[in-house]
Amino acid sequence: MPRQVDHLSRRRLIAEAVCCLADESGLEGVTLRDVAARAQVSMGAVQRCFRTKEEMLVFALGHIGEQIAERVRARVVRSPAQSARTALGHAATEISLLREEHRAQARVWLAFVAQAAVSEALAVPLKANYAALQEAFIQLISEAGEDGGEDADRAAPRDPRREARTLLALADGLTAHVLIGHLTPQEAQDVLHTHLTGLWERAPVRP
């Protein structure tokens, strides 16, 4: 058992090194040799943990996803009595990576998204990650509508799945806009807040 724990810890250490290098120069700057040097382990240690660079990148992508998901869970746990609407706002904010302390993680996340466009190995887990987030958003939006009592039909979106897709795409877009300097974090937060508020102020009727 200790050997298994050590192996997992080593893989996470290497994943952190991958993220640091990707933050500095993108995924094109990530080599097994540089990862080993940054993680302060031997090349052999890296190769024992990961058979290929592709396998290493896939694990690193999952590592980032777990960190973001953990922050979302922690935010919800801190306020267990919060409404579904509030929980949705917290989740969307965390996923957007708008805060200064998450700027490096945002750069790395978008580097993986860009690479996934030409790498099926990265696209598969990334699509699974987005699908899970979308389902979580659908659940929260649906619960918020159920909490609306007699006004639920007027207060909640008629199509939670469509609204969840829109919110997920908006979160990713805001991440990119802040990173390139088109929006400030506060401006992006205002956009997100306005969109979320609009979910409960309208009940769109579409053919």
End-to-end Cα distance, whole Å, is 58 Å
Overall geometry: elongated
Structural class: mainly alpha
**SS strand fraction:** under 5%
Record field, number of beta strands: 0
Rg measurement, Å: 19 Å
Mean pLDDT over all positions: 87
Elements, N to C (H/E): HHHHHHHHHH
Number of helices: 10
Largest sheet: none
Helix content: over 70%
Written account of the structure:
It is a single chain. The protein has helices spanning 2-25, 32-39, 43-49, 53-78, 84-96, 103-116, 120-146, 152-155, 160-179, 185-201. The chain is mainly alpha-helical and 207 residues long. Helix 5 runs antiparallel to helix 10 and helix 6 (103-116) packs across helix 7 (120-146). Residues 149-153 and 203-207 have low confidence and may be disordered.
